[in-house]
Amino acid sequence: MRCVIARYPFELTKDGVLASMKGVKPEAVTAESVTIGRRRYPVKQVGEVITRQDRRDFSGGEVIRAMTRLGFTCHPHPDAEAAAAPAPTPLQTASELLGGPGAADA
Questions:
Q1: Contact at 8 Å (CB) between 104 and 96?
Q2: Fewer CB in a 10 Å sphere around the end CB: N or C, the chain?
Q3: CA diameter of the chain
Q4: Alpha carbon distance 13, 1 (integer Å)
Q5: What is the arithmetic mean of pLDDT over 10-33?
Q6: In this structure, what are the phi and psi dihedrals at residue 89, rounded to the nearest 5 degrees?
Q7: Which segments within 26-69 are labelled E, that is strand?
Q8: Concatenated DSSP letters for the chain?
Q9: Residue 93: what pLDDT?
Q10: Given the DSSP bridges, would you call strands 73-75 and 33-36 parallel, antiparallel or unpaired?
Q11: Which residues pair with 75 in a beta bridge?
């Protein structure tokens, strides 16, 4: 599959990415990540390995688009998952504090 990362065209295949990442130890995941094989890698690390470019030269979104099109599972930023949970409304919070309707069962 042809994709453009940091303004450079690349011909990527799923097998090629698997081969490139074989033996590469995953760094700690602090942003978006992609599962390759049984390991979860930061997208910037994957982009750096498969393109051989400095990770400052491309965005994580470019790598995520390419990995998704190749069939890999991509994961959002870890904080984005926590932020997706809705915060309780002031009414819900007050109700829980006073033990009124909607209060959590103790």
A1: yes
A2: C
A3: 61
A4: 6
A5: 94
A6: -75, 160
A7: 33-36, 39-42
A8: -EEEETTEEEE--HHHHHHHHTTPPPPP--S-EEEETTEEEEHHHHHHHHH-S-GGGS-HHHHHHHHHHHT-EEE--HHHHHHTSPPPPHHHHHHHHHT-TTPPP-
A9: 65
A10: antiparallel
A11: 33
Phi/psi at 15 (5° precision): -65, -35
- Whole-number mean pLDDT of the chain? 85
How many residues make up the chain in this entry? 106
71 secondary structure, DSSP code: T
Bridge partners, residue 73, by sequence: 35
Block residue for tokens 């799923």: 14
pLDDT exceeds cutoff 70 at 17: yes
Enumerate the domain spans of the chain: 2-75
| Whole-prediction pTM | 0.71
Q: What are phi and psi of 70, to 5 degrees?
A: -80, -10
